Amino acid sequence: MTFGGKETTMAKRIALFAAVALLLFFAASPRDMNAHKVEERERETKVMILNYHKVDNMNISLSVLPKDFDAQMKYLKENGYHTITPDELYGSLMGTCELPEKPVLITFDDGYADNYHYAYPILRKYDFKATIFLASGFMGKYDNYVTWDQVREMASNGISIQSHSVTHSSMSDLSDEQLQAELTESKEKIEAEIGQPVQYFAYPTGMYDFHIAHLVREAGYKAAFTIRFGNVDEASNLYAMERIPIFHTEDTFSSFLERIHYVPAFEQLSWRKG
Q1: What is the predicted pLDDT for the residue at 4?
Q2: Could you give the C-alpha distances from 155 to 80, 91, 216, in angstroms and in order?
Q3: Which of 131, 136, 140, 235 could form a disulfide with 189 if both were Cys (CB 3.0 to 4.6 A apart)?
Q4: Is residue 12 domain-resident?
Q5: Is the separation of the CB atoms in 244 and 47 below 8 Å?
Q6: Are 54 and 62 in contact (CB under 8 A)?
Q7: Is 38 inside a domain boundary?
Q8: What is the CATH number of the domain that holds 170?
């Protein structure tokens, strides 16, 4: 079948409209827990949160090669980025803490052993802070996860240790009773092991909704992190904060640069959070 000029033009317009609608959908962000509208103005807080999983030589998407991770950290150091902790981010959003220029929060999900063997020495090389969200039930159970001794060492040297639940189950598949157990038991276990408060949570598999976020807050967490792409600013939901996932690709360093500069580019084009 052939199409006339009018039909072809209409099809192009529909495709363009659909593409723009998708961009608007993914650029949108959840509102805060009180559902109150944030005024359209220049945000005082704007923080890039990087999300890693593994740093090793496995050559899979979740595994950034150590040499690539080193190159990424070197770039951040040489370009004036300053690493911060979740407490510093929270304080800035609450108006009680002033952040350094070009703040970046470096996070790791799950608690793989390579975080200690490869990422941790590189972070120390550049005098960088970072945060590891642990699936507490995996510690001492699987050999490819950090040990509690390693966790305690990192916690004493600039690495914030926070919760990623007990079993890494998708939270949307659990009952309220199971959710509460995942939230409270992981928090209590990590606190008992490292002797420091655990006040931040990263959703396993990134799955959450407002009910789950409410339970996270009720369990005593100050804030929670998703895998939703974007920078954090004053329009961000404290219990659904955006992050920028970093992966291993055919050209990992170029992909890294594209990802960390993608959000600022959209902000300059006046793409705003809803």
Answers
A1: 46
A2: 25, 20, 23
A3: 136
A4: no
A5: no
A6: yes
A7: no
A8: 3.20.20.370
CA separation for the pair 252, 46 (Å, rounded): 25
Is 17 part of any domain? no
User: So what's the pLDDT on residue 177?
Assistant: 97
Cβ-count burial 200-227 (b if 16+ within 10 Å, e if not): bbbbbebebeeebbebbbebebbbbbbb
> Residues 102-116: pLDDT tens digits?
999 999 999 999 999
Number of domains in the chain: 1
Task: Report residues of the chain scoring pLDDT below 50.
Answer: 1-43, 268-272, 274
Q: How many CB atoms lie within 10 A of CB 167?
A: 16
Q: What is the pLDDT of residue 206?
A: 87
pLDDT of residue 92: 95
**What per-residue confidence (pLDDT) applies to 26?**
40
Position 13 scores a pLDDT of: 45
Contacts of 249 (CB under 8 A, 6+ apart): 61, 255
Q: Please indicate, yes or no, if residue 16 is contained in any of the structural domains.
A: no
Q: Give the Cα separation of 114 and 55 in Å (integer).
A: 6
